[in-house]
Recover the amino acids of this structure.
């Protein structure tokens, strides 16, 4: 079976990208912008909160190794899907929790994953399911950020290691063996 793509927004794209780069079955994670009304937005524009875009990741994965449903379970467990338009100190619609399915099948799986995850959270899940729309890759310096600049960025050092720890603890069988320990 051919690789598939999933487009997800869970707050800062540096943080969600770092998680999915460590998942077995994922061959590529690209940071970018989706869901807005401005063509070719820049990071500065999106951070301003006026373009309607979300910071998001586009994941390329092998569905024979990692199903879309399992990928969504990882997504909903490694960020807080109960926070409306924010993740921690990142506040605004650009940091919303959203799933952008590329087919009716992915949309049905997204609804099922949200229902499954509901029991794991003390508050209602506010993750939205939105039309796929145009994808705009983020600037080059945002790509694979955690592997380079991110480990020198105090924000990333505070936010990403707990997410990676949760991934390794809750989904140990899904973590690449060569993933560096946090």
């Amino acid at each position: 079976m051919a690789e598939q793509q999933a487009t997800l927004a869970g707050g800062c794209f540096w943080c969600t990208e770092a998680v999915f780069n460590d998942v077995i079955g994922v061959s590529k994670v690209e940071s970018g912008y989706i869901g807005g009304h401005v063509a070719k937005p820049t990071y500065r524009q999106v951070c301003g909160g006026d373009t309607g875009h979300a910071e998001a990741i586009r994941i390329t994965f092998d569905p024979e190794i990692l199903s879309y449903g399992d990928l969504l379970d990882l997504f909903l467990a490694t960020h807080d899907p109960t926070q409306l338009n924010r993740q921690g100190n990142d506040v605004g619609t650009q940091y919303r929790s959203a799933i952008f399915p590329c087919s009716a099948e992915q949309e049905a799986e997204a609804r099922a994953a949200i229902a499954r995850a509901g029991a794991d959270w003390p508050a209602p899940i506010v993750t939205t399911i939105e039309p796929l729309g145009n994808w705009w890759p983020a600037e080059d310096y945002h790509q694979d950020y955690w592997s380079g600049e991110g480990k020198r960025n105090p924000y990333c050092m505070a936010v990403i290691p707990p997410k990676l720890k949760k991934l390794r603890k809750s989904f140990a069988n899904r973590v690449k063996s060569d993933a560096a320990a946090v």
Notes: The helical segments are 13-20, 43-47, 68-77, 104-117, 154-170.
